[in-house]
Amino acid sequence: MVKAFTFATIAFVLVSALICGVAEPAGVSTSILRLQQGWDDAQEQIFYHTPQGTVILPASWLAALQSPDGKPFMDPDHMQRLGFIADHRSTTNPYAWPIGFAINPAKDTGGVETVGLTCAACHTGEISYRGRTLRVDGGQAHIDLDGFKQAINDAILATGSTPARREAFEKRAVQLGFPAERIGPEFDTRYRAVVDGTPERERTAATMTIAGPGRNDALAVIAKVLFNYALGVPANTNRATAPVDFPYLWSIWNLNWVQYNGSVKQPMGRNIGEALGVGAITHFIDPRTGALSPEPERWRTSIPVRNLNALETLLESLQPPRWPEAVLGQIDGIKAKRGAQLFSQNCAGCHGVRAIAGAKSEEWSVKVLPLTVIATDPMQATNFRSTTYDGTKLGLSIHSDAATGLRVVTDAVRTQAYRDAQIPPAQWGTFDGLDRSNVITSPCGYKARPLVGVWATPPFLHNGSVPTVFALLSESRPEKFLVGSTEYDPEKLGLSQAAAPNTFVVDTTAVGNSNAGHWFTDDQTRPGRIGRRLTDDERYDLIEYLKAATYADYPRTVVKGADPEPCVSDGAQNSDSKPSPY
Description:
Mean pLDDT: 92
């Protein structure tokens, strides 16, 4: 595979100078245990801080900004309360900001350095146990993304409404490199946009399901950013009532559906969509008139596709985390062996590795289970599938579905970005990821992926509505539980109920938060029943197996082709697909 952009090149193009006057965070732990997932320190830093073209603010503004309480917005304690993981200053992290913040070069974003979030912000986790902290690269973060956005807006409102605070902010931003002649008018524009947008944000907040730490209604956000803000069609809105756990990333490149809901096949298409949703700069319309910009300017964005390709390549070497016996306790081999048998009998039919015969690479078919079978919370699937948008500016229907619009836009952005980056057409398939077409669908179900390393990714189900594996395998589950703490429960495999600076109560009676479905029960009338009732001993045996599971001993079958998707594909399942015995 041709790698046109090396990891060393990424590090080179990032800002290498240290920023004077920015304090080193006090919250960086020196006792973090890495779980030997195949990356060295340099590769971790590339994942943590490589820009993906998303823009929050000019970097100097974020460094100068204060929270309403007068403390620096990026103060480590404040960022910890929002769930971010502290990180050291480095050439890839010149401001010593948390994992997931990246500096966009000035040449790419209007002549000044800007800061944006990377996929590492949502996909780097930590687990704590008895004073030890385990880093889970590619795991589930505990950040409160909606809380972070609100905190930014609150800080801008506080700054703009207090003359002395604004004067101090502007002086500090200029000292950090922002052009003095631009600071006044550009802050006015941002402040006014926040003020004018407050009523809509309040209306949205009143109708949404609060995600809290570790979750986000990502596809709803992407669709709204694209169809509403980027296209300038205010009527294009949706319901943010389906928060979803940040999915774990190891082995994701093996899956034939690379988006968490089984909707996207192509890695580059998925990554462009993610960058658009998190705030990449677009030029789809003329902001003064609302009319479409002329081509090719229409499809130019701040997304650096060479970076996206290099990051996707890096993820191919990310391994699932191995259970650290020295910290979390020894695995009981006898229980794990019994658990392996139970897993093969009860779980492997959906969660086993299903290698596609004749694929160009190691490609696995993932089953997408219909809502009528799995009966877990339906809101993510139904919202994505049923919400329509006015796509006439894109040459589409006035009632276009999200999948169609996303495919049209990501195709056009991708093609223009490849041309602007002077990537030879012969390499486009490599940059796309495994030569895959940009297929985007709307299945009425959820995908069941392999579970190696899943022990490190609580809470569970697609919407994070179950705190532990033990609860997931039980006939009843907690109606309410705490998230936000990284403290781990190695016995029941999941979240302990310890308090934390950003503790949040997940209420499973709220819309989008249902913890139903995927039941092991003898009640054959219960919706979402997938297997018989398990005894406590059997649950603990399965837990022990999930601690120990590696791909070397994991259930694996070879299938003739990809499994069909409910409500999308026609035809029966592969003939070699074995249903659950229950």
